[in-house]
Design brief:
It is a single chain. By secondary structure, the chain is mostly helical. The chain has 3 domains: 8-65; 67-181, no CATH class; 186-226, no CATH class. 67% of the residues lie in helices and 0% in strands. It has 12 helices and no strands. It has helices at 3-16, 19-63, 68-73, 95-105, 111-137, 154-164, 170-181, 187-199, 209-221, 228-243, 255-264, 275-295. Helix 4 (95-105) packs across helix 5 and helix 8 packs across helix 9. The radius of gyration is 41 Å and the shape is extended. It starts with a helix and ends with a helix. 7% of the residues are buried.
């Protein structure tokens, strides 16, 4: 036996003298087969997860391959990325991206209007760069990128500001409105469908579209119940409801007119065997009723 084998045997013989070592070896002899089985199972789950993620990425790339340049071009509306005015890249900032956006949103227009609208979008963005540089210095605290997670991104804040300045940027404001209303996932449409199902039940099928739209706005975009904003809104709603005029009550029908109508309705049952005689009697009775009505009373 060589020296290495002797050293290994001597070390193992030294460990065998310890009771804890023997107990550990005994426990591992029972546990290791189960751990080996679990290892193979987890390895299969890991491979399944990797295949699923890979297929998901491939599907997303295939479906949004054409839209990816347009979505990537939205990054020019991030005021934090706007360079300084004296920087050489300020003049060329967003030139390629705004051209991509202009081509995408004017693709369905007639050829004689497409070029002019594209030039308007480019010209508006050339002015917008200077405003975005000013907004960069006055961003609210909720847009601070150092906060994790950020409540409102700087891009979203900038797009809202552009929408409020639609009279200065009529073309880009429409683009910003589309960007803000585009859902990132299908969670928002699913939430809206669930809200419609919750509001328009089978007991409320007569709801009109305007009332349904108002209820959906309150349910989806309304303020959360229990907050300070919701309390103030509820108080103002109660005051507005209490200060409104009472509903106009329609006058009731006169009692004598109702009695006259009830007494004038005659229910006649005719036997099939004596139909001709009964019809003659019915005509005479109706003539008598007409005479009584003209005289203004009943016998």
């Amino acid at each position: 036996m060589d020296g290495d084998a002797m050293a290994t045997s001597l070390g193992l013989f030294t460990k065998v003298k310890d009771v804890k070592f023997i107990g550990t070896v005994y426990i591992l002899s029972e546990v290791l087969p189960h751990l080996s089985t679990m290892k193979h199972q987890y390895q299969g789950l890991e491979n399944l997860l990797c295949n699923y993620v890979r297929a998901l990425k491939t599907n997303i790339d295939r479906r949004f391959e054409e839209s990816l340049p347009v979505v990537s071009a939205w990054s020019i509306f991030d005021p934090l990325k706007v360079p300084k005015k004296d920087h050489p890249g300020f003049k060329l900032y967003g030139k390629t991206q705004v051209q991509t956006i202009a081509k995408h949103f004017t693709s369905s227009m007639p050829s004689n209007q497409k070029e002019s609208v594209q030039e308007e979008i480019k010209t508006e963005f050339a002015k917008l760069k200077y405003d975005m540089f000013m907004w960069k210095q006055d961003l609210p605290e909720e847009c601070n990128p150092s906060m994790s997670p950020c409540k409102v991104t700087a891009t979203e804040c900038c797009l809202k500001q552009i929408c409020s300045l639609f009279y200065f940027y009529p073309k880009i404001s429409n683009v910003a409105d589309i960007m803000l209303s585009t859902p990132v996932s299908n969670a928002w449409p699913e939430r809206g469908a669930s809200c419609v199902k919750r509001i328009k039940t089978r007991f409320r099928l007569t709801l009109k579209n305007d009332m349904l739209q108002s209820l959906l706005q309150v349910s989806i975009n309304g303020r959360a119940y229990g907050t300070n904003n919701s309390k103030g809104l509820i108080e103002r709603s109660v005051k507005a409801w209490s200060s409104a005029k009472n509903r106009r009550i329609l006058p009731r029908a006169r009692q004598d007119t109702a009695d006259l109508q009830s007494e004038s309705q005659l229910h006649v049952f005719v036997d099939a065997g004596v139909q001709s005689d009964s019809l003659e009697g019915l005509s005479e009775e109706m003539q008598g009723t007409d005479c009584v009505r003209r005289s203004g009373g009943f016998l």
